[in-house]
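User: Quick sanity check before I run a bigger batch. Here is a single chain. Can you write out its predicted 3D structure?
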Amino acid sequence: MLKRILLPLDPSPYTKTATFIACKIAKLHNAEITGLVILDIPGIEKSIGPIPMGALHYAEKIELAKKVEASQRIEQILEKFRTTCEEQMVPYTEAHDQGYPSKAIMHATRFFDLMIIGMRNFFDFETGAKEGTSLTKLLDKSITPVLGVPKAYEIPEILKVLVAYDGSLPASRALQRFGQLRNPEAMEITLLNSSKDEKMGMYLLEQAEQYLQVHGMKHIKKEWTPEDILKVVDQEYYERYDSFVVGAHAREGIFDFILGSLTSLLVQRGEKPVFIGQ
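Assistant: Done. Predicted structure follows.
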């Protein structure tokens, strides 16, 4: 059951897209969205740099000015979030935190059913950084499934979803959490297994199909390939599908490593949503 969605907020177009998608999912599940804003105090302090002798007072004034400016921008970000949620008639709350953004987000995810976030994030906007940080840097310690979204995205009427499934624990967690999402009639699903053993691969796909069917998903295809999963998805499947379901990288077994590499590939391309089971 999906009732609480965490939406970390920054001033980028990624957050605009993530907010729109979060509202769509919240409506389907009667869920509440929490917009999380973080004041990056360590980043502000680091941006000031070394303080020359006798310049402490001057440095404190700069730090205070940066904090005030950051707080004003945070309020602007929250106002956009409120406006979107109210326009979409979705219940929402706001959460504030201070510190390292990645740590604050990972701490918060423990109390939510799903996190929706951009493929790139700009939580260090207080320091003027221009390059966004990849979503993969936020995955290591989260136990909550993550929906990574691109900079811009239009949800199609029928969503074509590719589920990469190799029977590993990360892939199985992703399958289970994906199966609990609603609106199955609006999805066409392809289960893909990449392995050397076709018999075992097809067995795993049949088990995965049965699981999704029990959860109301009907339009399911099964495909097996002996080819490398990265090459196959990148060259043959990526353009054909609207969204992907994968397991996060894990710390055990070669299959987990391969699937984790696929997660990194999809996030790196960053053009389509990726549902990552944790």
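The longest strand covers residues 32-39.

User: Great, the batch can go ahead then.
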